[in-house]
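Usage

Read records sequentially. Each one opens with the input sequence:
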Amino acid sequence: MKILAVIDSPGGADFLAPVWSRLASEHECRLITVGPTASAALKEFAPTRCDTLAKAQKIYDEFGPDRLVTGVSSLIKGPYALNELVKYAAERGQTIIALQDYWANHRAPHNRAMINYWTKVCLPDELAKNYLLADGYRGAAVVTGHPGWEKCLAAAPAAADGEFVLLWAGSAAPGSEAADEESFRFLLAAVKSLNPRPALLVRAHPRDEAPARYERLAEEAGVTLRPPPTADTDALLPRADVVLATYSTSLIHAALGKIAAVSVMLPDAGLAKMKSIGLPDFPLNQLGAAIGVYENDPNILTQILIKLRDDAAYRATLRAKQEQFAASLGRDAATRVAAAITAA
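and closes with the structure output:
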């Protein structure tokens, strides 16, 4: 079987990477990436980067795949080569398998029409499947689990050293900068009122175009940022006692690693971004595996952080919900995804 994959986001790459080596060992495979962040995440597989539709079409025509595997696009500002190649392939009767790496990301404005082109969708859980079916998807919706999420279940937390460490997982992909900045300012206000003051680390989103803003905002607030000890976000997570973001895959990874996760859903920031993709809230908050903060009062976040630092029963209640979330996902997702791609 000839399999061509096209990926344009870190999330899609995280979903595909654990699957690709086993597919390539049994089938003739080609991999296309669009944009630099997907290329970096899949570099071990020597992908061909195609930021134009013409280049991607040329590879598609020359290769003649039996299956086209695609991530759900996240490039709000383009290039739109992934979605356009999918449409091109659909016009030729191609079997197209989409990897949905995040709940309802098909609802983003540039992706809403794409459900009409996908033959099959691999989904992380039943909640993601329900969102897809509610939007009128008529193809095969297969709950495979998420290989990139599953790897977090085995992550071991770093040894505690007595210091309370917070990690801000930036969500400033293009189009989300304002929401991320407002939410980070909110965090800084809460941090200033904590005594003793915690260590604060920041990891920018892979597509953040101006990550220096964090140092500037922290300096303006009178808060010192701790340089992160590693550039690998997943390696950094276990060093934190609490991971905070608006909505982020890092929060999912933290919850699966039983690290406290806090989602800052301010009305005009994180919550507004959620509603832009048709979600009422960050699903991890609704599942109880993360703590949602919804009011523009930094003292509320301060009190949550104090409880996460000092109240063992509060942490245990959160961890129990995280364990329920992890148990709901099943196991061996990479095998199930590979089977879904190659099935008739």
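Summary fields computed downstream for this record:
- The CA atoms of residues 229 and 236 lie 7 Å apart.
- The two ends are 11 Å apart (CA to CA).
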